Amino acid sequence: MNQEMNGVDVERIQENGHEKIDYVFKVVVIGDSAVGKTQILSRFAKNEFCFDSKSTIGVEFQTRTVTINGKVIKAQIWDTAGQERYRAVTSAYYRGALGAMLVYDITKRQSFDHVARWVEELRAHADNSIVIMLIGNKADLVDLRAVPTEDAVEFAEDQGLFFSETSALNGENVESAFFQLLEEINRAVSKKALEFTNGNANHGDHGSVSLKGSKIDVISGPELEISEMKKLSSCSC
Ligand SMILES: Nc1nc2c(ncn2[C@@H]2O[C@H](COP(=O)(O)OP(=O)(O)OP(=O)(O)O)[C@@H](O)[C@H]2O)c(=O)[nH]1
Ligand SMILES: [Mg+2]
């Protein structure tokens, strides 16, 4: 059986003979080019920031294992290219994603104006129950602000998104934003698991499990996605 199953707690998984992983949560980071997607991810996964970061080509992921409510969760976070010419969006990128970080740059109004399009893309390609966190990045550039916080709060409320302003540069709110997203996913997954235990689930063929209408395919794990997409080295500096 595939050992990395998005959000499926069939049994506690032993990794490297030491770490026990309860859940693997796939999260995608999306948004316009140069808003800071790669640097936010780098800050969360490695506590690093690169001033001379190169624009991402293709897709890559980084992981970080955290404990939330006593559960050991491996966050597998996928970064992608924001540049239009590199963005051949395939449903494989969104497949199995339980959460999304939708990033704009608080100093670039256009990147915020495009957020609605990114939400549409998520609604079209991702699972209905995906948890979305809107992120206004580069909050350290106070004097260059072009997007008032209230505009983003209003949009987020309207669309049912969580919201935070971050700085990948000084680390402000990056940790808390990811933790909030992972906590929300954990809450949703635990609820589904409870419903499953209570006998509301249907077993499908080929190891797939239907949990109250939302299907988690335990075959299509990250390995499949890696083989379908170009995985590049983790450092773009
Ligand atoms: N001041 C400041 N600069 C940032 C911050 N985050 C990223 N940057 C800078 O913004 C530029 C773009 O950052 P990236 O992380 O490469 O942007 P991206 O969204 O991954 O861009 P693509 O890969 O092209 O989609 C880089 O020069 C970063 O150093 C931040 O929080 N504050
Ligand atoms: Mg990038």
From TrEMBL:
GO terms for molecular function: GTP binding; GTPase activity. It comes from the Eukaryota. Transmembrane segments: none annotated. SUPFAM superfamilies: P-loop containing nucleoside triphosphate hydrolases. Gene3D superfamilies: P-loop containing nucleotide triphosphate hydrolases. InterPro entries: P-loop_NTPase (IPR027417), Rab_GTPases_membrane_traffic (IPR050209), Small_GTP-bd (IPR005225), Small_GTPase (IPR001806). PROSITE patterns: RAB, RAS, RHO. NCBIfam families: small_GTP. Belongs to the small GTPase superfamily. Rab family. This is Ras-related protein RABA3.
